What we know:
five-stranded antiparallel sheet, alpha+beta, 11 helices, 10 strands, N-terminal domain of TfIIb
Amino acid sequence: xxxxxxxxxxxxxxxxxxxxxxxxxxxxxxxxxxxxxxxxxxxxxxxxxxxxxxxxxxxxxxxxxxxxxxxxxxxxxxxxxxxxxxxxxxxxxxxxxxxxxxxxxxxxxxxxxxxxxxxxxxxxxxxxxxxxxxxxxxxxxxxxxxxxxxxxxxxxxxxxxxxxxxxxxxxxxxxxxxxxxxxxxxxxxxxxxxxxxxxxxxxxxxxxxxxxxxxxxxxxxxxxxxxxxxxxxxxxxxxxxxxxxxxxxxxxxxxxxxxxxxxxxxxxxxxxxxxxxxxxxxxxxxxxxxxxxxxxxxxxxxxxxxxxxxxxxxxxxxxx
Length: 320
Ligand SMILES: [Zn+2]
C-alpha cells in the first residue's frame, strides 16, 4: 500500500502544497486517493494470488528421465490434468528403476495407485486429481526393497504402447527403422530385451500414431477425392464398393479412380497415345495402383489418371 502512496505525492496533483497543510479540498482528495489506492492494492494482491495458483510450466514439462536421481520422496510432483502423462511418468520411472515391475491397483478419473508386483515389497505410488485441481499430484512414493534374482521373460510395464511412445521420434524420422534396432534401443535405455513381436507391434503403433491407421486411410479416401475434385473444377473421380457377403449392410471399397482437370487439359498437347501401367501396393491391403500416362512432343511423361484396383487384370484394365 505504501508503495502506491509514494507513487502519488501531493505535488503531483498540480498545486504546491507543504506537507501537513490542512486544506479541506486537499484532505478530501487525499482520502479519495487512499480509497482508490486500497482498491488498487486489493486488485494487485488478487492478481498475485492468481499467479501463485497457476501450475508452473516446468511441472508439466518435467523431465521424467531425471526422476531416478531426484528421488525426493517428500516432494509431491504434479502433472497436468492429462492422466496419460502421469501414467507415462510412473511407467518410465519404474522401468528405469533397475527393472522393477509394478501393477496398477486403482486407476480412476481421480486416483491412480500402483504397487510392486511382489507382496513383500513396499513400493507404491499414490496420485490423485484434486476436486478443483487442474493437475495430478503424486502425494506418496514408497521405494522398492525387492531384488530381482532373474529376468522375467515378460516385462509387464514395458508394453508395446510404452515402447511406441519411447521410439516415436526415431520411427517418424526413419520409417525404415527395423524391429531389431528397436530391441537394441530399448535394451540400451532400460537394460531389458523385449521380444521381436513386441518391437514390431510398437513400430506399427508408432506409424499409426503419426500417419493414422490403414483403415482410416481407406475410409478417408472418398472424402479426400471429393475435396480434390471440388477444389479442381471439372476433375472427376469414381468409387466402387461391394457389399460384404457376411454382412450385406457393410460396404467395402473395391476400386477408386480419379483424374484432374489440369491433366486432361495438358493431354491435348501430347502425342495421341496413352500407356497404362500398374504397380503393386505393399501396405496391409495390397492391391494395385494403375496409372495412365502420355508423352509430349519433347518426350516428357505426363501422368493423366490414377486408379486403385484389387489387381491388374482385364476387368480392372477395361474399367480404368
Ligand atoms: Zn519392488
